[in-house]
Write a structure and sequence with these properties.
Layout (H helix, E strand, L loop, with lengths): L16 H6 L1 H9 L3 H9 L1 H7 L4 H9 L2 H6 L4 H10 L4 H9 L3 H11 L1
Helix pairs in contact: 2-7, 3-4, 8-9
C-alpha cells in the first residue's frame, strides 16, 4: 500500500520526515527539558545550552525570540516545543492562541464553542 501525499493546509507546517530531520537538534534539546537540571542549565546560559545541542541560527533565533511558530517552521515538533513553552510559563491554550493569531481569551471562546 502506498502512502498518499495530502495537499498542504494553508498556514500550516506539517511535521513530516523532512521536518523531523531539519529539527532533530532542536527537538533533542527540548526533550532534555524533561529534566529539572537541564531546565535550570538552559535558564542559566541559553546561548551555551543551544550550542551544546548544535542548534542552527534559525532555531537559535526562534529560541531567543520565543517564537513558537518560527520554531515549528524550523523543524520543531509541537510536543517537544511544549517542554520549551513550559519554561516560559506558556500552556497549550497560550500556544493555540499564538498558532491561530488570536488572543488567549478568543481561543478559549472558540474551544468552548465546540464543546
Amino acid at each position: 500500500m502506498s502512502a498518499t501525499k495530502l495537499p498542504p493546509i494553508p498556514g500550516t507546517t506539517p511535521f513530516d520526515g523532512e521536518q523531523a530531520k531539519k529539527g532533530y537538534a532542536l527537538n533533542k534539546m527540548c526533550f532534555s527539558f524533561n529534566s529539572a537540571e537541564c531546565r535550570a542549565e538552559f535558564l542559566r546560559d541559553e546561548e551555551a545550552y543551544m550550542k551544546k545541542y548544535s542548534l542552527n541560527e534559525e532555531q537559535a533565533a526562534g529560541i531567543r525570540a520565543r517564537d513558537v511558530l518560527g520554531l515549528i517552521r524550523a523543524g520543531g515538533n509541537a510536543y517537544y516545543l511544549a517542554k520549551f513553552a513550559g519554561i516560559l510559563g506558556l500552556n497549550m491554550q497560550d500556544i493555540g492562541a499564538l498558532q491561530t493569531g488570536m488572543t488567549v481569551e478568543q481561543f478559549k471562546a472558540k474551544l468552548a464553542a465546540y464543546a
